[in-house]
Design brief:
The chain is mainly alpha-helical. It has nine helices and no strands. α2 packs antiparallel against α4, α2 packs antiparallel against α7 and α6 runs antiparallel to α7. It is a multi-pass membrane protein.
Length: about 260
């Protein structure tokens, strides 16, 4: 669990730091200029981080499933080697999926408008500015995202269904409450990540002419800003050992001073 939390924290830092500083600069100073290379670098890190986070949420759901449904086999199933392989596979998957997309889009000619109607370099918004047909890159984005997110969401849902079945079979009410509270928090974060993210993708693909632009921008921003904000609270403060360390920090500072 701590390995997954560590990777998740690193991914959230990359995701937030790729978007929020530039977004704040736009809101505060109105300066929305960004270089061509910086735009594609931002796009690469943002979309790679979202692909990696999707896999991490699946891995964490599997971790909770094993911990609650097969607690006696936990150490045998999730060995350090298995956890390392899972993390490496998730990171490589995000990088390998995003690299061809960035290459395809960066090699398109851009000779018209240079205004991206978003608060960051979102793929579909940048593709619309190309003078050539961006359909191949857009189609690749739609298919690859559906292939990654679809099975992940299905397996996450299956994991939590099995978890709920196991929880309701517990005889202890306190154990049921603890498990439901933990899983409920996790599910809430996943909904806030997947729902705006997938809505943003399909709206940009199918409903770009019917959905107002500010709604499209809001959806694209929500899944990048809200999860990195809530994840430290949900996965950090709710973890007993981390919570105790945080509560003891003021006392440590007081003793040092």
């Amino acid at each position: 669990m701590y390995c997954f939390l560590c990777i998740l924290a690193a991914v959230d830092i990359v995701m937030a730091s790729s978007v929020v500083p530039k977004m704040l600069k736009i809101f505060c100073s109105g300066n929305g200029s960004i270089s061509f290379n910086a735009c594609f670098t931002q796009m690469y890190f943002v979309h790679s981080a979202t692909a990696i986070e999707t896999g991490l949420l699946l891995a964490m759901a599997f971790d909770r499933y094993v911990a609650i449904c097969k607690p006696l086999h936990y150490k045998r199933i999730l060995t350090p080697k298995v956890v390392l392989i899972m993390n490496m596979t998730i990171v490589l998957e995000g990088i390998m999926v995003m690299t061809p997309l960035s290459w395809m889009l960066s090699h398109l000619p851009f000779c018209g408008s240079s205004v991206v109607p978003h608060s960051y370099c979102e793929h579909m918004a940048v593709a619309k500015l190309a003078c050539a047909d961006p359909m191949p890159s857009n189609l690749y984005s739609l298919i690859s995202t559906s292939i990654i997110v679809g099975p992940d969401v299905t397996f996450i849902a299956a994991s939590y269904i099995l978890i709920l079945r196991a929880v309701f079979n517990l005889s202890s009410k306190n154990a049921q409450k603890k498990a439901l509270t933990t899983c409920g928090s996790h599910v809430g974060v996943m909904v806030l990540f997947f729902l705006p993210g997938m809505s943003s993708l399909y709206v940009a693909w199918l409903g770009q002419d019917t959905v107002p632009l500010h709604t499209q921008v809001l959806l694209a921003d929500l899944y990048l800003v809200i999860p990195p904000t809530l994840n430290p609270i949900i996965y950090g403060i709710r973890t007993k050992e981390i919570r105790k360390k945080i509560w003891n920090l003021p006392m440590v500072f007081y003793q040092v001073s």
